[in-house]
Each structure stands twice: as C-alpha cells, then as structure tokens.
C-alpha cells in the first residue's frame, strides 16, 4: 500500500506515520528526517539543507525527487510506503506519479490532515523527540508516561528541532499555503484525496486514517 500523508507542518503526519509503520509494516519515508540526517552528517547536502530549513523554505524539487526515487527502490518498500513531507510541490507530485508508473505501481491513498492554523504553532513550539530513538512527544499533548523517560526506549535525552520556533514556523506555513496546498486538487482529480479531522486527539486521528486504509470509509 502506497500512502501519502499531507498537511501543514505540525498537522500530525509524523505521529501518525510512525503508528501506521508499526501497524501496517510499511516504512515511513520522511524527507525532513532524511535532510536532518544529512545536516547531522555535515555533508554538502546537509550544509545546503541547514540554510534552507532554518529559513523555513523548501529544498529544490530535483534533489528531493531524486532522494525519494532512491529511497523507494530499497527492498523495504516492496510492499509499499508512507510518504511524510513529500510531495510538497506540484512538480514533486507529478514526478512521483511518473516514478511510480515507471515502477508499475501507483498511489493508493492520499490523506490530508486538516488542522486549524492557530493550533499548528502551539503543536510545533511544544514538539520534542527522544534523542536516542526519535519517538515524538509534545509538552502538553503527548508527554512521556514517565516524566523525562522515553516510552519506547527508556532514553532520557530529548531534543527540539531548531526550525520549531515561532518565526520559522510562520515561513514554513507560508511555504505550505503557497507551494504545497496547490497539490491538493491534483489528488482530488485523481479521486485519491481523503480528508481527516486532524484536530481530534491522536488516537481518534489514527482511527479515522485506519478506516480509510481498511476500506471502511
Ligand atoms: P508533522 O509531522 O505533521 O509536522 P507531528 O506529528 O510532529 O507533525 O506533530 C506535531 C506535534 O503535535 C508533536 O509534538 C505531536 O506530539 C503533537 N500532535 C500530533 N498529533 C496531535 C493531535 N492530534 N493532537 C494534539 N497534538 C498532536
Ligand atoms: P519536515 O520535517 O517535513 O517539517 O521538513 C523540514 C524541512 O525540510 C522543511 O521546512 C523543508 O525546508 C525541508 N523539506 C522536507 N521535505 C521537503 C520536500 N519534499 N521538498 C522541499 N523541502 C523539503
């Protein structure tokens, strides 16, 4: 099953993708995570990505398309994948269609998480993750069960993204409105777009998505 989770920064794509990865056995392909790994490695790509991400802008399409094309050719994607953060422009969406067609496959579901803009800033500025395993948390909405201890791996070190500050969030939302939201009609025309209420609590959002994936909605 090939799935895209779409929605503005902070909509809950990563949170839901990790749950679907676990429950459906298909990998989460998060371009933001791939770029952060490049930044951490100090590579040339990482240096470019750092500047773009800190400004809340988007990386060049060709680079991102190549990154995804390489990634979906890995063996672990043979039964499908969950795209999180890609595509983000019409050019990326079109390139994805072409690349899947070439591979004899297609998208099964494009799921948009609808969240009010005021809630997004709140979600993003409270977001943090486990420095060891990457599990995601929120100061108020998703704290670990034991204060300061990761639920998944027991780690006690946590980190926040440098671009999760209010100023950068505004630029990222502008990029979403200007460059990413215009791809929604692309998937509407293909009759693949389904919307879920991303304002609901995390479990309720998962339930809505699973109903779609299981053909019950
Ligand atoms: P995205 O990947 O779309 O940028 P995340 O999944 O990282 O968004 O979620 C952003 C923040 O909001 C995280 O800290 C997460 O814990 C929290 N969050 C995710 N979904 C919900 C929800 N339905 N209700 C409240 N908080 C949420
Ligand atoms: P995310 O983790 O999805 O919030 O992405 C973090 C940042 O990485 C974005 O603000 C962009 O600068 C960059 N990025 C991630 N995915 C893409 C993409 N598909 N196209 C362009 N830039 C991207």
UniProtKB/TrEMBL annotation:
CDD domains reported for this sequence: ADK
Signal peptide positions (record): none
Binding site for ATP: 10-15, 127, 200
UniProt binding sites for AMP: 31, 36, 57-59, 85-88, 92, 161, 172
Single GO MF descriptor: kinase activity
Role, per record: Catalyzes the reversible transfer of the terminal phosphate group between ATP and AMP. Plays an important role in cellular energy homeostasis and in adenine nucleotide metabolism.
Similarity-based family: Belongs to the adenylate kinase family.
Name of this chain's protein: Adenylate kinase
Protein species of origin: Rhodovibrio sodomensis
Gene name in the database record: adk
